[in-house]
Specification:
The protein has one domain (6-168, 272-393): FAD/NAD(P)-binding domain. 35% of the residues lie in helices and 26% in strands. The protein has helices at 14-25, 50-58, 62-68, 105-119, 231-236, 239-249, 254-257, 301-316, 322-351, 357-371, 375-384, 390-393, and strands spanning 6-10, 29-33, 45-48, 70-72, 74-79, 85-90, 100-104, 122-124, 129-133, 138-141, 146-147, 152-155, 170-181, 192-198, 202-208, 219-227, 267-272, 274-275, 280-281, 284-286, 292-293. The strands form 5 sheets. Strands 6-5-14-15-16-13-17 form a 7-stranded mixed sheet. It has a 6-stranded mixed sheet with strand order 8-2-1-12-20-19, with helices on one face.
Length: 400
């Protein structure tokens, strides 16, 4: 017989909010803790793939997201060294009508927060969770307060979660991000994520990211790769030094760079790659980046968090025992997580590293290989997140 469980969730990010909404809808008693006095998004624009959109569809949020997001039909990157395409992914090579969605993180956050509230989840702000009683199902905050016990505790605190193992590998690179108004007369493709590379050391990208509300102007997210150990020097130097380098790499972005007048407009994100060894520990389960963190080369971060949240709710549905539900959750999600962790680890040095040989080979081999079958549908399936059939494992159907 199905039971209604008491569930404590640490972290009100995308994964935590989605889990709160989905589980509260099932009748579970959900309490969501966030360290900020007012929960809010961290970061800039992101890409939703077929996988994440399918989860939003099951939650009744897909149409709202698509109304504010920007459809992305293609990912296209050019090496400035050879002027050749070194990335060319067309979603329709996998299936007609398939596309990604560029969306502002704040928009997705608001949709999920509203859904969690409407479902009856209880949000406790200003509570920084530092530890968990894995066997007891408790959470302890920074002030020493103890919460629970719960039948289930969910760690959705992200890559720096104090409830999961420290990252084993901090990548050398990260990126500077800014969401900007779409400039009139710009040469950028409103249906494509475009990038420019110099070897693998420099990379700039432009991604359509929809609008903040129906009346707001269209926006794009600009990003620039940077070594983490060079970030302090970037902050200390006049902004014009960076702008000169950015314009040299991609002259067409000059109109975007004019909109950036202060270092504070650029958010720095350090990339990490690691998988927590034990995603389930007693009554504690890790989801999203608290379980599996990776660089954004394949654009899967938010989508993987949404899949984890839906997979957990699916595993709990009709289940009377937490332990059995968590075993089912791992059966649903672990294979897909391992596959994409491996693929992201393999792709990252090709496009963001200090390597010399790998980008040299990329520049000379990628252009002809990208056009040869089966590369187009394989790349489209990889970016769409469909390898490993994650939707089928949860009884979800892709949008048609």
């Amino acid at each position: 017989m199905a039971r209604q469980f008491s569930i404590g969730i640490a972290g009100a990010g995308i994964g935590g909010l989605a889990a709160a909404a989905l589980l509260a809808r099932e009748g579970h008693r959900v309490t969501l803790f966030d360290q900020f006095d007012a929960a809010g998004p961290v970061g800039s624009g992101l890409m939703l793939q077929e996988t994440g959109l399918a989860v939003l569809g099951a939650m009744g949020l897909r149409e709202k997201a698509e109304a504010l997001g920007s459809p992305i039909a293609r990912l296209h990157g050019i090496s400035v060294d050879t002027r050749r395409a070194v990335l060319d992914v067309r979603y329709t090579a996998l299936r007609p009508g398939l596309c990604g969605l560029g969306i502002q993180r704040s928009v997705l956050f608001s949709l999920l927060q509203e859904a969690a509230h409407a479902a009856g989840a209880r949000l406790v702000p200003g509570t920084r969770i530092l530890s968990a009683g894995r066997a007891e199902g408790t959470l302890t905050d920074a002030a020493g307060g103890q919460h629970g016990p719960y039948d289930l505790v969910i760690d959705a605190l992200g890559v720096r979660s104090p409830l999961s193992a420290a990252p084993r590998k901090e990548l050398a690179y990260g990126a500077l991000w800014a969401t900007l108004p779409w400039p009139e007369g710009s040469p950028f493709d409103r249906a494509a994520l475009e990038q420019r590379y110099e070897a693998a050391r420099k990379m700039a990208g432009v991604m359509p990211s929809g609008r903040a509300n129906p009346q707001a102007p269209g926006s794009l997210t600009y990003f620039w790769s940077i070594r983490a150990d060079q970030y302090d020097a970037f902050r200390a130097a006049p902004l014009t030094h960076w702008k000169d380098a950015a314009c040299h790499l991609w002259p067409e972005t000059e109109a975007l760079l004019h909109q950036i007048t202060d270092h504070e407009q650029l958010t720095f994100a350090r990339y990490r790659h690691r998988t927590h060894r034990a995603p389930v520990e007693g009554r504690l389960v890790h989801i999203g980046d608290a379980w599996h963190a990776a660089s954004p080369q394949l654009g899967q971060g938010a989508n993987m968090a949404l899949l984890d949240a839906y997979g957990l709710a699916h595993a709990l549905h009709g289940e009377a025992r937490i332990a059995a539900a968590l075993r089912r959750f791992l059966k649903i999600r672990a294979g897909h997580v391992r596959l994409y962790q491996l693929m992201t680890w393999a792709f990252t040095p090709v496009y963001q590293s200090d390597g010399v040989v790998t980008p040299w080979l990329r520049d000379r081999l990628a252009a002809p290989l990208l056009r040869l079958w089966p590369a187009p549908p394989v790349l489209a399936g990889l970016v769409a997140g469909s390898f490993g059939a994650p939707l089928k494992r949860m009884g979800l159907e892709p949008y048609r």
